[in-house]
Amino acid sequence: MGNKYLKLIMANMFNRKERKRKAEGVKSFNEKRAVEEAVERSDLGLKLVPVEKIVGSVGKYREFDSQFRLKEDHEPFRLKRIKEAMLSGTSLQPVELYKIKDEYYVLDGNHRVAGAKEFNWKEIEAHVIEYLPSLKTMQNILYREKADFEEKTGLTDLILLTEVGQFHHLLEQITLHQQSLEEVAETTVSLESTAEDWYKTIYRPLCSIIKRSGLMKSFSRRTLADLYTYVSVNHWQKGRKKREYGIGLDQLISPRMEQFRATMMDKKESDLPEMRRKVTAFIMINVESSRENKIMDRLFGCKEVQEVHFIPGDFDILAKIVVDRDMISSDSEVIGQFIQKRVRRIQGVTKTRTIIPLSSRRKQNHNV
Q1: Which fold has domain 277-355?
Q2: Which residues, including other chains, have CB under 8 Å from residue 339's CB and lie 6 or more apart?
C-alpha cells in the first residue's frame, strides 16, 4: 500500500512539472528587446550558431514549450516533414535568427530549430541579425565593447572580460602585432588574420603560463582573460618600471610582445615555463616564556617551514621558510602574508623580524 501511494505521489509531481513545462513556452524576442532597449541592429551574416543558445522566437513563441518542442494543440505535419528531411541528409536553408547579447531568437525556421534540438545537434547554420542593448548598465556597456571587439577581430566567444574598458587594450595589442607582421611580410595583413595569429601565438601561450601558475585561485572572481589583460598591459604596454608585482615575472616573460611571441612559437604547452618560483626567508620570533617547544612544533607542521631552531640572544626561535613567489605580489608581500596568517596567529608569539636574502650560496650534500 505504501509503495503504491508513493508511486502515485511521484507520478502526480511529474505530471504537474510536465504541464508547467508545456505551458511556459519559449522566450519572446519582443519582450527581451523591450527590456534591453535594443534598437540598433547589425547584420552578422551567416554563422554556425550553438543550438543550445537558441532560446526563443519572434512570432511563434506560444507554439513551442520551454524545450522548443511543439505543443500538442499545434499541427505536427510540418515538423514531421522537416525532421524526415534532416534524417535523410537533405540540405536545408539556413534559419533566420535575431541575437540579443548571448541569446538567439528565431525569425524564420522555428521547426528546423525544434528538429535540431530534438536530434541534439550542436550547431545550426543561420543568418544572424544582432540587436545591441542600449540600456546603460555596466553589463550592457561591457557587452557592447565585446561585440565591437569581436566584429573587428573575428574572435567570437573566445575572450571573456569582466571589467569595462579593457577590450581596447587587446585591440591595441593586435594592431601593434599587425604592424610587426606587415614589416616582416612586406605586404598588407588583414586585422582578422592578425587577430587569429595573436590569439594562437601570444594570447594562448601567456594564458597557459598564468593557468599553470595557479594564480586563478587567488582571483576567483576574475577570468583568465582578465588576468592576461592585467599582466600583458602592465608588462608590455605601460612599461615594466610602472608595475608593482613580483620580480620573477621579468625572468619568465620577455620585455616585448613580439619577442615573447618568437620565444613561444615553437613551444608546446607542456614546455611553457612555470610562473611560480620559490623565495626563501628567515623569521626571527619572540615567544612567551615556556612556550618555545609548543610553538616550534606548530611552526614545523607548516609545509612552508623547512627548519626551526631554538636560539640564544634577542630572539627565541629562528625559522627558515620557503614560499611560492607569484607574478602579482612582491616577495615581501608574499612572505608578509604567510607571517600574518600562519605565524603571528600562533598563541604565544609576541614579535617577529624577517630577513630576505638578496643572494645565496649553498653547499650540496653538506652535513649539519
Answers
A1: Alpha-Beta Plaits (3.30.70)
A2: 283, 352, 354
Task: Measure CA of the first residue to CA of the last residue in the chain; give whole Å.
Answer: 78
Please name the residues in contact with 304: beta carbons below 8 A apart, sequence gap of 6 or more: 321, 322, 323, 338, 342
Contacts of residue 8, defined as CB under 8 A and 6 or more positions apart, other chains included, come to: none
Q: Looking at the chain, which residues constitute the CATH 3.90.1530.10 domain(s)?
A: 24-135
Q: pLDDT tens digit string along 43-67?
A: 989 989 999 999 999 988 888 988 8
How open is the CA angle 323-256-203, to the nearest 5 degrees?
Answer: 75
* Kind of pairing between the strands at 54-57 and 103-108: parallel
3-state secondary structure of 192: helix
Beta-carbon-side half-sphere exposure of residue 98 (alpha carbons within 13 Å): 23
CA atoms within a 13 Å half-sphere pointing along the CA-CB vector of 227: 24
**Secondary structure of residue 76 in the 3-state scheme:** coil
3-class DSSP state of 198: helix
- Please give the DSSP secondary-structure letter assigned to residue 215: G
Whats the size of the chain, residue-wise? 368
Q: On the CB side of 332, how many CA atoms lie within 13 Å of its CA?
A: 5
Contact 315, 348 (CB under 8 A): no
Quickly name the fold that domain 24-135 has: 3.90.1530
* Per-residue pLDDT at 21 exceeds 50: no
What pLDDT shows up at residue 250? 61
From the centroid of its chain, how far is CA 168?
18
Q: Where in the chain is the domain with CATH 3.30.70.920?
A: 277-355
Is the per-residue pLDDT at 26 higher than 60?
yes
The pLDDT value given to residue 275: 45
Radius of gyration of the chain from its Cα atoms, rounded to whole angstroms: 30
